[in-house]
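can u do me a favor
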């Protein structure tokens, strides 16, 4: 009878470990040479500061959640940064904390559409946002009832 060769388990494990380490090193080198492109024109921290400036200009600092009935304010924001480039964010306010997220939410109370230029003007002049709203350069679309907006502390947008 022929003898069967025994499988050299330690050697197989060693080769497997070497292969995994090699793949990880290649991945690390590739990632370090090709860093991820930032979304939009500005860094994430600058974008979040822009959103906070917009919230202050629109007097949204008093918006709050209603914990007894489980209502959390959600605001969708579209900011046109260049002629065709639009950044989208949604805010969720829970327990006094504003969470700014990239992307689109399907459950929002209001939708704000504006431009980077309008936000910068509003930062420099605290009364400018009223002019921007009345001229239509910034729009606020209500997507829920006036009662819900009132209970969450939204201001009257005119």
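np, heres the sequence
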């Amino acid at each position: 009878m022929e003898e069967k060769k025994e499988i050299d388990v330690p050697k197989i494990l060693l080769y497997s470990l070497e292969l995994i380490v090699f793949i990880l090193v290649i991945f690390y080198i590739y990632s370090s040479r090709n860093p991820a492109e930032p979304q939009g024109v500005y860094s994430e921290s600058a974008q979040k500061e822009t959103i906070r400036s917009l919230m202050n200009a629109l007097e949204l600092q008093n918006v709050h959640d209603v914990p007894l009935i489980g209502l959390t304010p959600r605001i969708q924001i579209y900011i046109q940064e260049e002629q065709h480039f639009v950044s989208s964010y949604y805010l969720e306010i829970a327990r006094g904390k504003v969470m700014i997220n990239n992307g689109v939410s399907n459950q929002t109370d209001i939708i704000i559409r504006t431009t980077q230029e309008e936000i910068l003007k509003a930062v420099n002049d605290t009364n400018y946002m009223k002019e921007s709203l009345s001229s239509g350069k910034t729009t606020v679309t209500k997507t829920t009832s006036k009662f819900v907006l009132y209970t969450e502390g939204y201001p009257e947008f005119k």
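The helical segments are 9-33, 44-57, 116-124, 128-135, 146-151. hope that helps!!
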